[in-house]
Design brief:
Blueprint (H helix, E strand, L loop, with lengths): L11 E4 L2 E2 L6 E13 L10 E15 L11 H5 L6 E6 L7 E9 L3 E4 L5 E9 L6 E5 L5 E3 L4 E2 L12 E2 L4 E12 L2 E7 L6 E7 L7 E6 L7 E2 L1 E7 L2 E11 L7
Length: about 260
């Protein structure tokens, strides 16, 4: 696997229905953790542990921006009231199939620091709150992707690269509807054994949407078979919708 730096300029961060990438100076950390439970008994000479509850956190920071009436809104307007049950995703690149992670989180803080040199910066920590920890997957759209109208599909994604040809633990779709000019839209993940898949993943479909928003949608079955190819599908009577979506394909039983 080719090593890479974070200097490509292609990374993106989405919070609920907002693309905040242009106001983020750095990602301090993205962490997925699990409590370790001590099951050691009297007969054992070393620790015996079992995995406990999962957790996750995404921390990011940027420079002060409180511009009134900005589009999209300035980060101050987004974070000044702590967000609850927020959908936060990080993207490694603006390419379908690139590494991405998602988190259903509560905003733990909005800390603003004025340094002695005069800089004014802020920090936000998004901590898991939706019953699941940080989840790694891959992007289904090319960043904040524009869909003009009608039934359209994103690019094919094959994260299995041939072997195995399927997984058996369902899927989780993360969706950010950044904007929609008019009408209504549904957004879903589809899968199949060959390129250009069309089979819906039950549960990984939004309701009919008419406004900005974000969603974490686990498949109806946590043991559903998801075949080799996946992609995004958008449909409805809409005009100029901007969507960012990623898919998590668990490789073991969902926590």
């Amino acid at each position: 696997m080719a090593k890479q730096t974070g200097a490509t300029g292609g990374q993106r961060l989405f919070v609920d229905g907002y693309d905040v990438s242009g106001n983020i100076a750095a990602l301090s950390s993205m962490s997925a953790t699990r409590d370790q439970l001590d099951y050691t008994d009297l007969t054992q000479t070393a620790k015996d542990r079992r995995g406990g509850l999962v957790d996750g956190k995404i921390s990011f920071k940027g420079w002060w921006d409180a511009t009134v009436g900005a589009t999209p809104p300035a980060v101050h307007d987004i974070f000044k009231v702590p967000r609850t049950a927020a959908i936060v995703t990080f993207w490694d690149a603006q390419l379908a199939g690139s590494a991405a992670c998602g988190l259903a989180a509560d905003q733990a803080n909005y800390k603003v620091d004025r340094a002695t040199a005069g800089s004014l910066a802020w920090t936000v920590d998004a901590e898991a709150s939706g019953g699941s920890g940080l989840e790694w997957g891959y992007s289904l759209t090319t960043g904040n992707q524009l869909f003009a109208s009608g039934t359209l599909y994103g690019s094919d994604c094959d994260d299995l690269v041939g072997d195995p040809t399927s997984t058996a633990f369902g899927a989780i779709l993360y969706v950010h509807l950044i904007s929609i000019a008019s009408g209504n839209i549904t957004i879903s993940a589809v899968e199949g054994a060959a390129a250009s898949p069309t089979a819906a993943i039950a549960g990984c479909t939004t309701a009919l949407l008419t406004a900005q928003g974000a969603y974490r949608l686990p498949s109806t079955s946590a043991t559903a078979t998801i075949r080799q190819y996946t992609r995004l599908k958008v449909a409805g009577t809409y005009a100029n919708a901007r969507v960012a979506a990623m898919l998590v394909r668990p490789i073991g039983p969902q926590a």
